[in-house]
Design a protein that fits this description.
The protein has 239 residues and is mainly β. Helix content is 0%, strand content 54%. The chain has a 7-stranded mixed beta sheet with strand order 1-20-17-22-15-13-14, with no helix packed on it. Strands 2-3-4-11-6-9-12 form a 7-stranded antiparallel beta sheet, with no helix packed on it. Strands 5-10-7-8 form a 4-stranded antiparallel beta sheet, with no helix packed on it. 36% of the residues are buried.
Length: 239
């Protein structure tokens, strides 16, 4: 039988720095909950809003796969690899920090905030050569379907990372039903609802709720309203 762990939107950690409003599903910075350190290899899931023209100054990372998904606005990226890029809604950014990288992320616009998801996945290889990549997805492929955003395979759809993880995104209309089958035995699935209402087994998720699911191979979902959802399959690492 599937096992579930529910994280409601209201139960998340919150950091309001004026220029940054961030909600933390898992322990991060000054927010710490010993029961919410990670879900398997999924270490960070931050829901960030950055004020116009503001951002994260240059800072280091090491041995982490960092994925950024803009929900609105434009985010400008610069790093020690010489990369300068802007990601917008429909783009997916991935950075393998590996042996060490410095980067900054700023709101490109002076008039409107940028909203994005910052996601960290623990890698299965340490001290790899740092790398940066980004793609633009065809949002038509996510209409009443699960569109792959990320995988371990360079040849597959979406970006790739150093971990046996798969991310999918979907926009579903009310009363739509869909299913998810694990790509790898023993992995778990973390569902993060961006908008709308979703039925997962006996649970009803609302916007920004998350639920971790283990001990299953295939699971059915039903959209109680029009919705957008992110599904993250990750190995169930213990540490």
């Amino acid at each position: 039988m599937p096992e579930f762990i529910l994280h409601t939107a209201a139960s998340r950690g919150k950091a309001d720095h004026g220029w940054l409003l961030s909600y933390h599903t898992f322990s991060f910075a000054n927010y710490y909950d010993e029961d919410r350190i990670h879900f398997g290899a999924l270490r960070v899931l931050n829901d960030d809003k950055v004020a116009p023209g503001m951002g994260f100054g240059t800072h280091p990372h090491q041995n982490m796969e960092i994925i950024s998904i803009p929900l609105s606005g434009d985010l400008e990226h610069k790093d020690s690899l010489g990369t300068t890029a802007v990601i917008s809604t429909g783009d997916i950014q991935v950075m393998s920090a590996g042996s060490g990288i410095m980067h900054s992320e700023y709101n490109k616009n002076k008039e409107k905030e940028v909203c994005f998801l910052q996601i960290w996945v623990i890698p299965n290889q340490m001290n790899v050569t740092p790398r940066y990549d980004q793609i633009t997805i065809d949002e038509e492929q996510s209409k009443n379907a699960l569109q792959q955003l990320l995988s371990p395979n360079k040849e597959d759809a979406g970006v790739w990372i150093h971990q046996d993880a798969w991310f999918h995104f979907g926009n579903f209309s009310k009363d739509s039903e869909f299913a998810y089958t694990l790509k790898k035995e023993g992995n778990g699935l973390y569902v993060f609802l961006l908008s709308g209402t979703l039925m997962v087994d006996t649970f009803t998720l609302s916007a920004r709720d998350g639920i971790g699911i283990t001990e299953f191979e295939k699971l059915d979902f039903k959209a109680s309203s029009d919705l957008s959802v992110l599904l993250m399959e990750v190995p169930m690492l213990k540490f």
